[in-house]
Amino acid sequence: MLTGRKYRLDFTPEQGEFAERIGGACRSVWNTALEQRRIYRRRGGWIGYHDQARQVAEAKDDFPWLAEVPGHCLQQALIDLDQACARHGTWKVRWKSKVANPPSFRFPEGGKITVERLNRRWARVKLPKLGWVRFRLTRPLGGKAKNATVSRDGEHWYISFLVEDAVTPPERHADPGSAVGIDRGVVKVVTRSDGRFHHRVFARDREVEHAKKLQRDFVRTAKGSARRKEAAGRVAAMARKVRRRREDFAAKTAHTLATGFEMVVFEALTTKNMTAGVEPRPDPEQPGAFLPNGAAAKTGLNRSILDKGWYRIELATRSRARYTGTHVITVNPAYTSQTCNVCTVVDRKSRESQAVFRCTSCGHIEHADVNAAKNVLTAGRAEFAQPRPGVRAGARKPRNRVGRKANRQATAAQSTATAGSGLAGIPRL
């Protein structure tokens, strides 16, 4: 089974500078290749990974800074771009910024990565053109590394190994028949159908006020100054502390759910749509004025939703479920908070407040989130009992390799025909 292992690297100053240059080269290749794809699309053409990889290899003769970095890292950047364009479309893929996107690059060939353990606390890895690099061995590697991704988070560098741990998934969960429904909320992050809550405050009140002060200090600095860079580092350090607490909570909650239940049912929440902003409403009586639309309250709700990390909890549970044999499914969240789990009557008036559910039909009284979680579990049992015939859970549509081959042949013919139009080569970096 493939799994991830992340460790903190101990770069020398020379290795750190070289890693910055590798990340910068990968970012430039990504942005230039994306620009080239969009130019081709505007003119009715198409270009793929194979042509762009060949052009990058040719560009190394003109740009020495491309030749000094590992070639496989540049190729992997093009592969990632190709997959992103195929999944989201050329026009929805974003550019990589030097400020917003920390440097990151991947070594895709595990055969060229050598890992040696030095002692109980330290180990070292040999990376192409970077040489031997020490890293803090906080946990055993547990298998053979398939690839390695190097990235910077704040002032420190980290390495993530994709490891084949040779663990086989269990045929059945340790507690057969157990199931739980999950309701994710703002007041309580996770509410289970058995009445238990999982909650944690990721940023205390004084930390929130301190974060606001750091943000004000950052805004008051001049652009491009050293003080602005220091202020940005302090703001990022505070956000990183909160993010790590959120990751720790998600991992612990996922472990509890996956080890305790054979089936975990989540609501299929679209967090992106739920946290969309409110458009202003113009006042027809006063030109240029706008009517109150509750934008401030909606902004506060959006921040609360994003702070809880709903999707991270679901993703961590799916990852942990591979080792326990747990089935993780999602159901339609419509009316789960307005339906009585006893008499199944739907009435929005039954939910008196955030925490109180009092059915207007049968008089059943229960915690509102627990009632919603029970409805989620009921919907999950019904969906799990009637799987669609001939469709395996998690199955992906097979790739049309014949079509991809035809596209490559058409692109090669088009590149030959447009050799003099300035599109044959990759735009200058």
UniProtKB/TrEMBL annotation:
Region (Disordered): 387-429
Oxidoreductase found in the keyword field: no
Ranges for domain Probable transposase IS891/IS1136/IS1341: 167-275
Keywords attached to this entry: DNA recombination, DNA-binding, Metal-binding, Transposition, Zinc
Location of the Transposase putative helix-turn-helix domain: 1-43
GO BP terms, alphabetized: DNA recombination; transposition
Homology family: In the C-terminal section; belongs to the transposase 35 family.
Protein name from the UniProt record: IS605 family transposase OrfB
